[in-house]
Specification:
It is a single chain. The chain is mainly alpha-helical. It contains 20 helices and eleven strands. The protein folds into four domains: 90-243, HUPs (Rossmann fold, 3-Layer(aba) Sandwich), CATH 3.40.50.620; 256-330, Glutamyl-tRNA Synthetase, domain 2 (Orthogonal Bundle), CATH 1.10.1160; 331-383; 386-485, Arc Repressor Mutant, subunit A (Orthogonal Bundle). β8 (212-216), α7 and β9 (239-243) form a beta-alpha-beta unit. The longest helix has 16 residues, at 20-35. It is elongated, with a radius of gyration of 32 Å. It binds glutamic acid. Residues 11-13, 45, 197, 201, 215, 219 line the site of glutamic acid.
Length: 485
């Protein structure tokens, strides 16, 4: 069933942070919806009360907002198919669990945890796959009523039919088949009255009119249970698309132990949202060409589920780094200015005043040399403060006995300049070198060292123009006093 306007959902459990795999799922759903003129829905799967994390939903919504994946329906926004928080839909699950019990597709189970582990133990010893033994399926209506009346705790289980092939066609993985004998009588409603993931997920996908379920491969083994549930209800199934696993470079499953997995961590490290989106888009998808640099609108145009790969996608940090540098370079200057101001506000220079004009000059000089916004400060601190020290090796190499004498002449020549531009500085330096009968390098290196404290950076004359004549001369004089050889 390909509806004209697909409805897809991102259905995270609020764990307190957004996993990069979750971001990939959200993005693919978003891209698919936008490409197909459909709707992208956010649904919060918060039925596991043991894992409740204060503020997790707000955090999730904030991260999605920051990264620019705006949902059409969901918490805090509403829509025609809400509520979009599962914890607010408990009556619905209860009602439909009862319907399944009525139809004999589900049943009450009163087994104690002790009995369940005994059964499991026995099965294990016999070399069987541990599975609920359907003990309570044979309880009479009367027994059930009495148990409930006497306050015995119970769960509701799916009655999985034996000897059945459970099959579905996955857009990414193709035809998938499971043997129902390998499927446990899944709990649908827990003893605390809350639904399990399977129950709530299927009921919600049905009533929210979800046409395509696009989620990570780790959910593939749940899908036969969902297929059984759809069939038990007599509901039409959505199409499924299971996205490839994310792998570490050593091809193990991407895990927290090997590095950051939270989008929030990448954000804190200074990765641009444009780069992160671009990076996760390529974790399992390509447009069939060699293009790797994408903006969101281009991805929307090119995206299709048919071009999602089956095989695991390696999480390559070097590529994220590269994409960050590429996106940073292509960002319009006004955005860079805003980001640099944010960075400065969080730095030791927060109380300094810099004009837009000044910062834009720094941006122009440094643009090709930085991969992160913070590197505007880290790589060229001399635009924000006078050098406190001078790179030792560079001093050894280029600060000679006669350097002070040469610099004094240069200071004299610079002093005579009136609002010098790049060429003025360059001409004067060349002329001075000529007069002193030394090579240009004898002046260039010490001047760079004196004004920046460093031996490398953008064009020296660009630095001087940005610093201005007065500051340039101050720093030259200061270095004459402070550089010791
Ligand atoms: N709540 C599940 C998760 O945390 C949703 C899986 C699905 O999309 O069905 O990812």
């Amino acid at each position: 069933m390909i509806s004209e306007h697909p409805r897809v959902r991102f259905a995270p459990s609020p764990t307190g942070y957004l996993h990069v795999g979750g971001l990939r799922t959200a993005l693919y759903n978003y891209l698919f919806a936008k490409n197909q003129n459909g709707k992208f829905i956010l649904r919060i799967e918060d039925t596991d009360r043991n894992r409740f994390v204060e503020g997790a939903v707000e955090n999730l919504i904030n991260v999605l907002k920051w990264i620019g994946l705006d949902y059409d329906e969901g918490p805090a926004k509403g829509g025609n198919y809400g509520p979009y928080m599962q914890s607010e839909r408990l009556d619905i699950y209860k009602k439909y669990a009862e319907e399944l019990i009525e139809k004999k597709h589900a049943y009450y189970c009163f087994c104690s945890p002790e009995r369940l582990s005994e059964v499991k133990e026995e099965q294990k010893q016999k070399g069987l796959q541990p599975k609920y033994d359907k003990h309570c399926l044979s309880l009479s209506r009367e027994e059930i009523e009495n148990n409930i009346k006497s306050g015995m705790p119970y769960v509701v289980r799916l009655n999985v039919p034996p000897d059945l092939k459970v099959a579905f066609d996955d857009i990414v993985r193709g035809h998938v088949e499971f043997d129902s004998n390998g499927i446990d009588d899944q709990v649908l409603i827990k003893s605390d009255g809350y639904p399990t993931y399977h129950m709530a997920n299927v009921v919600d996908d049905h009533f929210m009119k979800i046409t395509h379920v696009v989620r990570g491969e780790e959910w593939l083994s749940s899908t036969p249970k969902h297929v059984l549930l759809y069939d038990a209800f007599g509901w039409e199934k959505p199409q499924f698309a299971h996205l490839p696993l994310l792998l570490n470079p050593d091809r193990s499953k991407l895990s927290k132990r090997q590095g950051d997995v939270a989008v929030e961590d990448y954000r804190a490290k200074g990765y641009l949202k444009e780069a992160l989106l671009n990076f996760v888009a390529l974790l399992g998808w390509n447009a069939g060409d060699d293009v790797e640099f994408y903006y969101l609108d281009e991805m929307i145009k090119k995206f299709s589920l048919e071009r999602v790969n089956k095989s695991g996608a390696v999480f390559d940090l070097a590529k994220l780094h590269w994409l960050n540098a590429e996106h940073l370079r292509k960002l319009p200057d006004r955005d860079l200015l805003r980001l640099l101001r944010e960075e400065l506000a969080a730095s030791k220079f927060k109380n300094n005043d810099y004009s837009d004009e000044y910062l834009l000059k720094v941006i122009t000089a440094m643009k090709e040399r930085v991969s992160f916004v913070r590197e505007y400060i880290e790589k060229s601190p001399y635009f924000f403060e006078r050098p406190e020290t001078y790179e030792e090796n560079a001093v050894k190499k280029s600060w000679k006995e006669n350097t002070p004498e040469l610099l004094k002449k240069l200071i004299e020549a610079f002093s005579k300049l009136d609002s010098p531009n790049k060429e003025d500085y360059e001409n004067v330096l060349h002329k001075t070198a000529e007069e002193l009968q030394v090579g240009n390098a004898k002046l260039i290196h010490p001047v760079r060292l004196a004004t920046s404290g460093l031996s490398a950076g953008p064009g020296l004359f660009d630095i001087l123009v940005i610093l201005g004549k007065e500051e340039t001369i101050f720093r030259l004089q200061d270095a004459l006093e402070r550089v010791k050889i």
